[in-house]
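User: I'm writing a tutorial on reading structure tokens. Could you give me a worked example: one chain, its sequence, then its tokens, then a sentence or two explaining what the tokens reveal?
Assistant: Sure. Here is the example chain.
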Amino acid sequence: VSEVLLKKRKHLERIKAERAAASLLKKQVRKAPKKVVFKRAEQFVREYRTLENENKRLDRLAKSNKKLDVPEEPTLAFVIRVRGHGKLPDKIKKIFKLLKLNNLYNGRFIKLNKATVTMLNMIQPYVVYGTPNIKSVRELIYKRGYTKVKNEKVPLTDNTLIEKELGKYNIICMEDIVHEIYTLGPNFKYVNNFLYAFKLVNPNNSTLGKKGTPFITYSETGNRGEEINDIIQKMN
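And here are its predicted structure tokens:
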């Protein structure tokens, strides 16, 4: 067989192989979107069903005459968002925004009164909350205390910064912040707004946001009283 003929055969074989590979790729491309579309449709159905059920829960809550457990005197609470990072009803999203619990495992100090208890009642399936002790308050602020300076998140490691921002309220150091928060002092609102939401971690995962076993089940959400301190210790 001449060398020219051999080259021609090899050339034809290469063309056939390339065409076969291209044909296979086209089939795979045609199949892939169907799977993607089907999975996406299933996901949307689940989201719509969850959203519909949640709206029904809120409607039942609005119609119920259940008496809220409002403390006689304003009480300090620490709230942690432990669920709800997909589609949520607008009412729930609005409350999370008001409480500055915009992300999963965010925590905030709040003053329990009729208004905040009403909001917590509405978002109960998504949060845990309770009464923090002085140890929890101090450790949260010292370990995960941040504020915003010129639109940048800054750790609370410098008393000079605290005095500059809160000195007009006679708050000049970390311990002043701890005291004002824990005692619900007269400037609690300003000090609490000075603090960023505390970014906690899911103890079942090595990093925040990584998929894994939920730390808090649906039946464990809501008011946990003093148990919140154990939860804080695990998530801090």
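What the tokens reveal: The helical segments are 3-63, 90-99, 114-122, 134-144, 159-166, 174-182, 188-194, 228-235. The first helix runs from residue 3 to 63.
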